[in-house]
């Protein structure tokens, strides 16, 4: 993948933006404190909500959420502010995923040999913002040359809805045309000179950072 020259970005509009949310985990405690009850793991157990306890209880009851679900919802709203949850998948429906990204997508149009043959237009996200919902056992992977890029596609219908790009092995390249309708607002397309991949990626100022959380 490579560098865009001035005037190579193209903008299109699609659908309307909608918000949504991903998730986190907890760590295990270290046992008992001397002469006292078992130590609580950081971030777990009861916590003092102070004057917000009434609002918290009402929020849980109104939305029928457990404490964990309510906390996850609010943490996601804070950590992923400015992003929307897109969903998508392959043609036959065996592979489904969700991904957190802007409603305004920056899509790369690469002209390397494989991207040209399969029309691999994609936007890049950090791995932490992508979740495979189903179909892990229905994916197969094609690699070639450096074998860094992992071209994953559905065994049944052959559609590549996402993959691991060589430029961003710590993230995912998502096919915008495989997203469900309703969450994409605009698409800006940047042409990338994949025929001179090393030079193009080295000179590109932002592509490597797109997979950083």
Give a summary of the structure in a few sentences.
This protein is an alpha+beta fold and 213 residues long. Helices cover 17% and strands 26% of the residues.
Topology record:
Elements: E1 10-13, H1 53-63, H2 67-79, E2 84-89, E3 96-101, E4 104-110, H3 113-118, E5 121-126, E6 130-134, E7 139-142, E8 151-154, E9 162-163, E10 171-174, E11 186-192, H4 197-203
What does this structure look like?
The protein has 213 residues and is of the alpha+beta class. It contains four helices and eleven strands; from the N terminus they run βααβββαβββββββα. The protein has helices spanning 53-63, 67-79, 113-118, 197-203; strands at residues 10-13, 84-89, 96-101, 104-110, 121-126, 130-134, 139-142, 151-154, 162-163, 171-174, 186-192. The strands form three sheets. The protein has a six-stranded mixed sheet with strand order 1-11-4-5-10-9, with no helix packed on it. Strands 2-3-6 form a three-stranded antiparallel sheet, with no helix packed on it. A hairpin with a 6-residue loop joins strand 2 (84-89) and strand 3 (96-101). The longest helix is centred in the middle third of the chain and has 13 residues, at 67-79. The two termini are 21 Å apart. The model is unreliable at 2-8 and 16-42 (pLDDT under 50).
């Amino acid at each position: 993948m490579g560098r865009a020259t001035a005037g190579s970005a193209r903008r299109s509009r699609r659908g309307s933006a909608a918000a949504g949310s991903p998730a986190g985990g907890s760590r295990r405690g270290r046992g008992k404190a001397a002469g006292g009850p078992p130590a609580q793991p950081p971030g777990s157990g009861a916590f003092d909500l102070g004057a917000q306890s009434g609002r918290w209880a009402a929020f849980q009851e109104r939305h029928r959420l457990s404490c964990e679900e309510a906390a996850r919802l609010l943490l996601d709203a804070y950590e992923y502010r400015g992003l929307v949850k897109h969903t998508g998948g392959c043609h036959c429906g065996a592979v489904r995923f969700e991904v957190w990204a802007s409603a305004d997508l920056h899509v790369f149009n690469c002209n390397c040999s494989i991207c040209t043959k399969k029309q691999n237009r994609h936007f890049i996200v950090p791995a932490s913002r992508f979740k495979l919902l189903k179909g892990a056992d229905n994916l197969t992977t094609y690699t070639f040359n450096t074998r860094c890029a992992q071209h994953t596609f559905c065994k049944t219908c052959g559609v590549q809805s996402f993959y691991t790009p060589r430029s961003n092995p710590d993230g995912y390249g998502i096919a915008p045309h495989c997203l469900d309708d309703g969450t994409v607002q605009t698409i800006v397309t940047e042409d990338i000179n994949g025929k001179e991949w090393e030079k193009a990626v080295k000179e590109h100022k932002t592509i490597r950072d797109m997979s950083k959380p």
